[in-house]
Write a structure and sequence with these properties.
- The complex is a heterodimer of chains A (about 575) and B (about 260).
- Chain A has 22 helices and no strands.
- Chain A folds into 2 domains: about 40-45 and about 55-120 and about 145-300, no CATH class; about 320-560, no CATH class.
- The radius of gyration of chain A is 28 Å and the shape is globular.
- With about 575 residues, chain A is mostly helical.
- In chain A, about 75% of the residues lie in helices and about 0% in strands.
- Chain B contains 10 helices and 10 strands.
- In chain B, α3 (about 95-105) crosses α4.
- The radius of gyration of chain B is 19 Å and the shape is globular.
- The chains are: A mainly alpha (about 575), B alpha/beta (about 260).
- The interface of A and B includes residues 31 and 120 of A.
């Protein structure tokens, strides 16, 4: 066990006598925590894909990286101290960002690290009481969180130490601590709530959609807030003018900080002080007392290994007939019979049902929507009249819209070779498939139909309605270019069969990033230049279609020697 | 003799589905119970209730005079459980994992260390003791799991398909171990689909189907009731809907088109 973990372990075990009075077995608590922290260290190592060798470097670097990132985020939070004209406002903003950032980081960590379904089979049959188990889980979270929050709050501490002295820092530290407790239990309560209102099977799905939502929200606030808020208003903003803000915990913490820092002993300040101390501590007690037993039992069902034959869900016929007839229709239109159609259907269905795939691709769709909204927000001058064919603003809008529309598609295409269930790829290797290229082209076609067809249909209709039929040649050119780029991505980067490999983080991000932004942007620029020269547009559109067709055809013709695909066991 | 495990009218629902429909069983010390039944009969559910993984059941479970509902921890201390799926923290080494298990049972460290060393050696894993288990084969993991269930020397041992992934030699060791443990007065609850093993190791066979006990007795007693045939045949006779021969015929007939 490394020194950081040992330090934190000793710290969290300091109030052992209190734990004991709550009915917790200290020896068991300590051994669970020790083992959990040891596993955290190694998981960082296995994340680096170093399986065979015991390489200690990556582990340290990963920890350091996380801590540096937290430090960086913490530096960013400092802006809140330059906003508003009183400490309560500054504090409210700081605590809001802090609680929000911490909560969203923790939600991600909860599912992967902190709530380990194997605990049910390993720890629950042992004589460990629910209280001990839950407390071990909570303290594990505390340690994990501390590794995150100490660097995160460090910049603010330094700033306050400089301007406010020791008193300012220590009162702030106390409230950061309380705010952290509050956040942890907020998340805990959220999890318990989700487990209460829904079935455990749906739990992970809901959490992952929540994570997607948070990621998009982040991006949106990052993009939109600075544009929407007027600078003068920020500097004169005062929190507390509205009654609603009294309900927001960050405001309580800010008020309490103001009380300690500026000796504001008004009645309202005292009330908020009390709230910010009592609420976090009361929530610990509530979670342990009332939720613990239920929580574990419900959690033990998440693993979903209940019984050999789980009763079919009520809505068992999830595959509605309309979807499957739509699917069989488009699969006939867009893919050839045989291996290609099989790959088309397989890819279409797996990408619709795999949580893993959605987690990787759907956030990018959210970013796209945010970005489009942003374009409209910032260009308020665009009117419907401006959209008519030929105006410069319509030109820019049209080009950016059409070249952005492939964003999702390229993201999705870059993902099709990866899956957690890559071992299931044995089906390709044990069946007599002569042309594996058919599998690739089927998979890419499925992605085009799924992620591009609906979007481009909408764009086609909208642009014909607003800009008239004169837009059609440019529309065809833009569309063909997108398909061509996608096919090239497929040709170059998809050299493995669909869903046949474990995710390799570093490699794909680079290639995908390159294709997603650089190439479409370049092509979009060129398209912009020739936009008005109709004959050129038409010729290029034809050429682009031919190029697309040729690339797809050569993907089809890929044989086993062109693929680097091997069965990974 | 006082039964060491008593199940009285054990009932369990999953939603609307009744998985256990009132199981009655008295199990005595030193018995090896072969607990068998088709998929979905309620075997795993019974096991999970006994180990304390499932606590919302109806009926009574009494282990060594202690009601499982009133004092689950006391019961868990007496029970050793070897789960069916290889559920392990595989980034740990066997020494770390087993040490952790021992600490949860509150065993003194010296006793645990010595015992696990001997047990790992017996299974031929002494050289792997300090290697991470993520590189282990299924059989090696299963051996670690078996040790983790026996380490605290429990009176009651629940084995759920303990032979899965083991090679033929290890199977012999485990079968031998089971009969020696029983001779030592341990009670063994053995769940399996492998009828030939159950036939050999258990001195009492409990057959459940659709949440109810449909046969209970020694292999000889079952043979007396059901005709002198193998356990596999008896099992098929009592649980299969329709004839299994027909099913194979139907499968063969599918080629005819």
């Amino acid at each position: 066990m490394n020194i950081v973990n040992r330090f934190f372990l000793n710290i969290v075990l300091l109030p052992s006598s209190i734990y004991e009075r709550m009915g917790v077995d200290i020896a068991q608590l300590k051994s669970i925590l020790k083992i959990k922290l040891a596993m955290d260290d190694r998981r960082a190592g296995s994340f680096q894909q170093t399986r065979a060798k015991k390489n200690k470097n990556p582990i340290k670097l990963a920890t350091l990286g996380t801590m540096l990132l937290s430090l960086f985020m913490g530096t960013f939070f400092l802006f809140s101290f330059f906003v508003g004209n009183d400490d309560v406002t500054k504090g409210t903003i700081y605590f809001s960002i802090y609680i929000f950032m911490l909560a969203s980081t923790l939600i991600a960590d909860f599912t992967s690290v902190l709530i380990d379904v194997r605990d049910n089979m390993i720890i629950l049959p042992k004589p460990v009481s629910d209280k001990t188990f839950l407390l071990s889980r909570l303290l594990h979270i505390v340690v994990h969180t501390s590794k995150l929050i100490l660097p995160m709050t460090l910049p603010a501490m330094i700033l306050l130490a400089y301007y406010r002295g020791i008193g300012g820092v220590s009162s702030f530290a106390l409230l950061v601590f309380l705010a952290t407790l509050f956040t942890i239990f907020l998340i805990n309560a959220l999890y318990i709530f989700i487990l209460k209102v829904t079935t455990p099977e749906k739990f992970k799905t809901i959490i992952s959609y929540f994570q997607i939502f948070i990621a998009i929200l982040f991006y949106a606030s990052y993009q939109l807030v600075p544009r929407l808020v007027n600078k003068a208003a920020i500097e004169n903003y005062r929190a507390g003018d509205s009654i609603f803000i009294w309900l927001a915990p960050p405001y309580w913490f800010a008020k309490a900080w103001n009380l300690l820092n500026n000796a504001d002993f008004g009645i309202s300040a005292m009330i908020f002080m009390l709230l910010s101390i009592v609420v976090p501590i009361a929530s610990i007690w509530v979670v342990i007392k009332y939720f613990a037993p239920n929580f574990n039992r419900k959690l033990s069902m998440i693993s979903g290994s209940e019984g050999g034959v789980a009763p079919l869900p009520k809505n068992g016929k999830i595959i509605s007939s309309t979807t499957s007839s739509y699917l069989s229709l488009v699969s006939k239109w867009f893919s050839r019979k045989g291996a290609e159609r099989m790959a088309f259907l397989l890819t279409y269905k797996i990408t619709s049902r795999s949580r893993e795939f959605k987690m990787k691709v759907y956030p990018s769709m959210g970013y796209l929507v945010v970005y489009l909204v942003m374009i409209f927000f910032t260009n308020k001058k665009i009117t419907v009249a401006d959209l008519s064919y030929g105006s410069n603003s319509s030109k820019i809008l049209f080009i950016s819209l059409i070249y952005f529309s492939s964003f999702m598609l390229i993201m999705a295409t870059g993902q099709i070779q990866y899956s957690d269930k890559f071992k299931a790829a044995w089906i390709y290797f044990t069946t007599p498939i002569k042309e594996p290229g058919m599998l690739l082209s089927g998979a890419i076609r499925a992605m085009i139909v799924k992620f591009y067809l609906p979007l481009i249909s909408a764009i086609t209709i909208l642009s014909i309605v607003f800009m008239g039929p004169a837009i059609i040649p440019n529309l065809v050119l833009g569309c063909a270019n997108q398909l061509f780029i996608t096919a090239m991505v497929g040709y170059i980067s998809v050299r493995e069969l669909p869903f046949s490999h474990a995710q390799d983080q570093v490699k794909i991000n680079f290639i995908r990033g390159l294709f997603t932004f650089l190439i479409p942007a370049t092509v979009a620029g060129l398209h912009y230049l020739i936009y008005s020269f109709m004959p050129v547009v038409i010729i290029l559109a034809v050429l682009s279609i031919i190029a697309y067709w040729m690339v797809m055809d050569s993907i089809r013709k890929k044989n086993w020697s062109n693929l680097i695909s091997t069965y990974e066991d | 003799m006082e039964p060491i495990i008593q199940l009285k009218n054990l009932v369990k629902h999953y939603g609307d589905k009744q998985v256990l429909k009132g199981i009655h069983l008295d199990i005595f010390p030193g018995q090896v119970i072969g607990y068998i039944g088709p998929n979905g009969a309620g075997k795993s559910t019974t096991v999970k209730i006994l180990c304390g993984l499932i606590s919302d059941y109806d009926g009574t479970v009494i282990v060594d005079g202690i009601d499982l509902k009133t004092d689950p921890l006391a019961v868990k201390r007496k029970v050793g459980y070897v789960p069916e799926l290889a559920e392990l923290y595989d980034v740990l080494t066997p020494a770390e994992f087993l040490g952790f298990m021992a600490e949860l049972y509150g065993m003194p460290k010296e006793v645990a260390d010595e015992r696990m060393q001997k047990m790992l050696a017996a299974f031929g894993l002494e050289t792997n003791m300090h290697q991470r288990m993520d590189t282990f084969s299924k059989g090696m993991r299963q051996k670690v799991l078996i040790i983790s269930g026996l380490l605290h020397n429990p009176d009651i041992i629940i084995l759920d398909e303990p032979l899965s992934g083991l090679d033929a030699n290890s199977v012999i060791i485990v079968k031998d171990l089971i009969s020696k443990l029983a001779k030592d007065g341990k009670t063994i609850f053995y769940c399996s689909h492998m009828m030939d093993v159950v036939e050999k190791v258990s001195d009492r066979i409990v057959l459940i189907n659709e949440g109810m006990v449909i046969a209970d007795g020694s292999f000889e007693e079952l043979q007396n009731q059901q005709g002198n045939q193998s356990l596999e045949k008896i099992f098929a006779h009592m649980t299969a809907k329709g004839s299994l021969n027909d099913a194979a015929d139907q499968l063969m007939r599918a080629f005819e088109n």
